Amino acid sequence: MANNSYSGVKNPAGEANHDGEFGCSLKELRALMELRGAEGINKVQECYGDVNGLCSRLKSSPVDGLTGQPADIDKRKAEFGQNFIPPKKPKTFLQLVWEALQDVTLIILEVAAIVSLGLSFYHPPDTTDAAGGVEDEGEAHAGWIEGAAILLSVICVVLVTAFNDWSKEKQFRGLQSRIEQEQKFTVVRSGQVIQIPVAEIVVGDIAQIKYGVTTQTVVRSQGRTHVMEGSGKMLVTAVGVNSQTGIIFTLLGAGDDEEDDEDDDEKKKEKEKKKEKKNKKQDGSVENRKKAKAQDGAAMEMQPLNSDEGAEREEKRKANLPKKEKSVLQGKLTKLAVQIGKAGLVMSAITVIILVVLFAVDTFWLQELPWVKECTPIYIQFFVKFFIIGVTVLVVAVPEGLPLAVTISLAYSVKKMMKDNNLVRHLDACETMGNATAICSDKTGTLTMNRMTVVQAYIADKHYRRVPEPELVPSSIMDLLILGIGVNCAYTTKIMSPEKEGGLPRQVGNKTECALLGFALDLKRDYQAIRNEIPEERLYKVYTFNSVRKSMSTVLKNADGSFRMFSKGASEILLKKCYKILTASGEPKVFRPRDRDDMMKKVIEPMASEGLRTICLAYRDFPATDGEPDWDNETDILTSLTCMCVVGIEDPVRPEVPDAIRKCQRAGITVRMVTGDNINTARAIATKCGILQPGDEFLCLEGKEFNRRIRNEKGEIEQERIDKIWPKLRVLARSSPTDKHTLVKGIIDSTVIEQRQVVAVTGDGTNDGPALKKADVGFAMGIAGTDVAKEASDIILTDDNFSSIVKAVMWGRNVYDSISKFLQFQLTVNVVAVIVAFTGACITQDSPLKAVQMLWVNLIMDTFASLALATEPPTEALLLRKPYGRNKPLISRTMMKNILGHGVYQLTIIFTLLFAGERMFDIDSGRNTPLHAPPTEHYTIVFNTFVMMQLFNEINARKIHGERNVFEGIFNNLIFCSIVFGTFIIQIVIVQFGGKPFSCQGLTIDQWLWCIFLGFGCLLWGQVISSIPTSRLKFLKTAGHGTQKEEIPEEELDEMEDLDEIDHAERELRRGQILWFRGLNRIQTQMDVVSAFQSGTSFQGAVRRQPSSGSQHHDVTYVSSPSHVAFSTATAATASATVGCECVFP
């Protein structure tokens, strides 16, 4: 290990020692923290004697920990800092306003409005004839109003957009703080083992760690320090910004604003450098390795600059791995928005050109008027008016409300899902869950209640169908049994008194161990007395449970120098290691293979067929005469055991699970159970849950058999072999986490079924991490899950309940439907508004819908409609159809029928009113009015009817699958009702009191009733459209297809080679641009870290840079011996910097 010295960050606080309050200063602890391995141990021994000496200096006890007194905790926080790393500052409201103002169409509109405003104040000499008929002077003075109104409308749009962004950011910061608050760590204070929030850890705390815990609790990223084996205690010596992680965060600018903006020239230079580096990869890597060897004695390989061979191998490996596709829905939407935007741009350009040409032909050719110099501003004013009409056509055509609708829908769903016990960590998981076709679920705690109790036992040659009375068990066996249970269950596991009188005792810790401790209590014996007599420090050796051993063993040293080992584990595995069994007399007798087979048939299989988990309890004595055994040789140690008893543990199926699984199956989702239990137990539970039905021909396999079937003669996994198994597989028993990962990967990569499978996985253990990462959506258990599992997941089930997954499916499908509803509504408005503006402009040389009116319509379409339609609550009906699939277009043929059908009705009404409205209502015509003429009743009726039709069509848009009852459940969505009613009230105000700014003239009651009636006609027309079978309309096409992976150009795929995921939304939006920024940021991060740690400092844990403008975080993972620096990109979770701590192990 390299000699580590830190020279990057100075902290003057380290100088002070508060008049010797503690025996060592912050500066000393930071110096100690920089040392690793033997150097660290030597330093502790040299300065403090041992870890106990360091504990006494920090006024802490290795056994009892800190006192926990508030005054003491506050002193420690003041002296050594808090366990908190400041997150990046959120954007202020004004910054968000400025960002919203960057919208190109709004900028164009602002410029046009300012030009219009300026020209309206110019009054030329008497040139009325030349100007082509300008209105009288009084009306000319009101010319400024339109420009001002457009500016005001733009301000409204900007403020609404900024407020939405601000509330979204606030919501996700709240979500992250909830995740952080829920993260707890086990420490010893005043001799009691308690759980405290991670942020409350202070220097001097004695932390208890065990298998599956994250010890360097820093950021939710890929590379933290995880306990993979064993358990123990550690002394916390640095927290927050003073820990190694905190120092690195300070280096990389945590808590400061990132430099988001780079100079364009610099970017070009960097890009050229990057190309050069790519061409000179080999030279760079050799030089790099030489430098690293000079410093560290071991090659420090930079992955982006590593050796040619290594790079090729890595590239091939990554190219072969299928990438996880994310934000598929947003990718489709962005692509659709771009296509509609292009069409709108073409339409607006044609509108402007036609208006200009018609004006020029009419004024200078037909009327033969000369171009008078004084009238130039008047002509420019006409051209500006035409330009504003063109821009408003573009504003209406460009569906900027689409991303807003997605954001609102996802944010609303995430908020509501938290109430349904789904804590969403990655936003796109919500949308992906709607397409799920398969769920691979754990059994314990997810399908079952995770409240385990021993209900049967085989003890002293007798099979008891219920827990035996204590007097029936020989005292010698009883003493051994209680001793074995007491010491061979984690000391953090305990049975506590019920919270409410008359309730069940509380189970704390591992539930299987809780069942055994409960068994001891049922036998009227106290396990705690054993633990008081033999504290955890006196345990000589502990072999903790893991997925390979499937057992746990604890060794005690006796007074005479001999050893006794107690073991517990899966009965069929542990019984194979037993050569003796205790009889009714309490004496051991030889346990032959045929005896074991008899026990399997008569005891274990009957227990398992009833859905019980069978656990064997055994022990072994090591005589003092044989000397101390080689404890590292597990094969020899875990053999020659004596069986004490076999117990059957019941974990009842959650009462709501069978119904939830039925809903999944009806919704076209296949549920598979993947468990570590034996096949009989698994099959029995699967049948109770409804995963297996009597008479089904589905497969139930054990892990060994599964591996045998999917591997070829060379032991390699073949996809073709997996494809023969997974469609019929329903239960995978005695499986390892590797089997789970293999199954998930096999299903995702399969091409047997035309539609690509979308797989959700549940997991709670440390080794479930790879499967959770690989799955399209990973669910971690919030209660039983380890930190590692939670970190690898997309959604955390706060109640560990399978029925919560079904709710996630409902919300996911609801997001998709909400977006489709919004699209159906918006595209109808788009088509009608653009055609009306275009045709009206071409025929009457003016748009029937004025610029400010268009902006109001745009506000209804975008912000209000997205709020109303994207917040529809999900219904059970969503689970009555099959998953859409990733390739389904956003706009189905039924939706296209609705869009075109309602478009025809609305255009017919608008054009009838436009060209015959003055005769129908006996009013003056609004066509061909002068430049600044006052508003007319005619055009006001056109505008009002148009808005009324949109309001009633919004109700139609609530149904997208051809349903007739569009009012069903309408009062369940108060937001929708409020917005429709509110829009109607505002429309009355605009029409009756809007006047010149809104180009409106107040209407009579009769005219209002006609407008409302024509709007209501949309609902009646909707029933007519629903009666036409979509299958008859062969000409209808779908729209809104996403870009398939196969369609992505090779160059872009090459750019994405170092990514684990393809973000479709990002790709569609930025194309190759964002990939370049990502590469640049990675190199910058790399150079920051290398320059700061030139002396070879290696550190564990992960460093995540704070998010810059995009949604990318950058992880840096250091692995020692040889020091290998790997740079990887992780998509933004909801987390940013939280906390860090450094520790010394006693």
Compact summary:
It catalyses: Ca(2+)(in) + ATP + H2O = Ca(2+)(out) + ADP + phosphate + H(+). The chain has 1146 residues and is of the alpha/beta class.
Q: Please, could you describe this protein's structure?
A:
The structure is a single chain. With 1146 residues, this protein is α/β, with parallel strands linked by helices. 48% of the residues lie in helices and 13% in strands. The chain has 38 helices and 30 strands. Strands 9, 10, 13, 14, 15, 16, 17, 18 and 19 form a 9-stranded mixed beta sheet that branches. Strand 1 and strand 2 form a beta hairpin. Residues 1-19, 126-140, 214-226, 254-323, 1055-1060 and 1065-1146 have low confidence and may be disordered. This is Calcium-transporting ATPase. Its EC number is 7.2.2.10. The chain crosses the membrane at residues 104-122, 142-163, 345-366, 386-412, 822-843, 899-916, 974-995, 1007-1028. Its main location: membrane.
Q: Tell me, briefly, the overall form.
A: elongated
Low-confidence segments, given as residue ranges, are 1-19, 126-140, 214-226, 254-323, 1055-1060, 1065-1146
What structural category arises from helix and sheet content? alpha/beta
The separation of the N and C termini measures 21 Å
**What's the β-strand tally?**
30
Radius of gyration equals 36 Å
Which percent range describes the beta-strand content?
A: 5-15%
Question: Sheet with the most strands?
Answer: 9 strands, mixed
